[in-house]
Amino acid sequence: MPSTRMGPALVSGMETGTRIAVIGAGLVGARHVELVARHATLAAGVDPAPASELLAQRHGAPWRTDLADCLAKDAPDGVIIATPNHLHVAGAMRAVGAGVPALIEKPIAASGDDAARLVEAAEARGVPLLVGHHRRHNARIAAARQVIGEGRLGQVVAVQGQFWLYKPSDYFDATWRTRKGAGPVFINLIHDIDLLRHLCGEVVEVQAKFSNKLRGFEVEDTAALILSFANGALGTISVSDTVAAPWSWEFAAGENPAYPHVPGGAYRIGGTDASLSVPDLTLWEHTELKSWWSPITGAPVPVQDVDPLERQLANFIAVIHGTAKPVVSGREGLRTLRLLEAVTRAAETGSPQSPRRD
Q1: Mean pLDDT of 204-220
Q2: 195 contacts 306 by C-beta, under 8 angstroms
Q3: In the predicted structure, residue 7 carries a pLDDT above the cut 50
């Protein structure tokens, strides 16, 4: 993802000698290159585009046109795969075959079946896979998870998510963005449902409805979801990239300078004792008796912001050295992708769907 507007990294314990190759030199890959060069050793930059050679040279690293050449010549301790989605599995399979841990940008694969094949191969060989759902590394998500885990909300009974913003017409000049699979559900909602899984537990059933009536493209521009969580909580998510509004993680988190920062909530998690707004981390509690006639106040949960991409890199390096487990494993990435597929099936069939369990 593009660089964050958050303050200096507070990540410690980076193994600066760890050799990491970055596969893919687009906007996301370039950001990974900068971070690896700062906190570890860039083993190589890998991309067939000649322009990417300059990026590797700027950091004193070799440029390779394919991953096989890199694995043979540069001996990386790990690889970050930031190629187009349909190339994720091929690159990761090559890394797994060489016994090299891989961090794969989200989604882990273009389909759940491809993701399952990759995850099973990696687990069989004992090669760690991580998936770049970087928002799980955000300090605000860690704080929210701690609040929920400590039971401060009581029993979670209701969850609300919102992704409303407006994508201008020139966004769709790239024709692929008008085609099936490139709408806000797959491109954007995948982040939100991954975070809600992380915060509130597994989703066992989903209902969904899509609409493309505003723009008329193959892809949806608006969607509504109902989620049933394993713990009995019910959730709703409203998704639209045709609404002029600030109510989304992109605006509320202040994580990515590409978006204006409008502090507020993208998710609300309601419990029997208190409720929490995320990512602004406002905890709402009755000051006296728990009752709709009793005053209720909101107070901020303390948090110190850290660049989530740096935290993600620190986790990857620790996994490479065997001192930590992945925050987002390959199997976690698979489960999120399976849930997203269930959302699509629910919209297509008009019937509730359960995510496939691999």
Answers
A1: 96
A2: no
A3: no
The correct CATH number of 136-300+337-349 out of 3.30.360.10, 3.40.640.10, 3.40.50.1970, 3.40.50.1220 is 3.30.360.10
- DSSP H or E stretch at residue 210: strand 203-211
Specify the CATH number for 19-127; select among 3.40.50.720, 2.102.10.10, 3.30.565.10, 3.90.1010.10.
3.40.50.720
Comparing CA positions, the residue from 287, 305, 310 lying closest to residue 297 is: 287
Which ranges constitute the DSSP H helices of 126-245? Answer: 139-149, 184, 190-200
Residue with tokens 């407006």: 166
| pLDDT digit string, tens, across residues 295-347 | 999 999 999 999 999 999 999 999 999 999 999 999 999 999 999 999 999 99
Give the whole-angstrom CA distance, residue 56 versus residue 36.
11
Give CA angle at 37 (100, 22), nearest 5°.
Answer: 40
Quote the CA–CA distance of 304 and 3 in Å, as a whole number.
18
Q: Does the predicted model carry a pTM greater than 0.90?
A: yes
Confidence (pLDDT) at 17: 87
* CA 264 – CA 144 distance, rounded (Å): 14
Nearest-5° Cα angle at 287, 281 to 292: 95
- In what helix (H) or strand (E) does residue 294 lie, and over which residues does it extend? none
- Sequence-distant (6+) residues with CB within 8 A of 248 are 162, 163, 164, 165, 188, 266
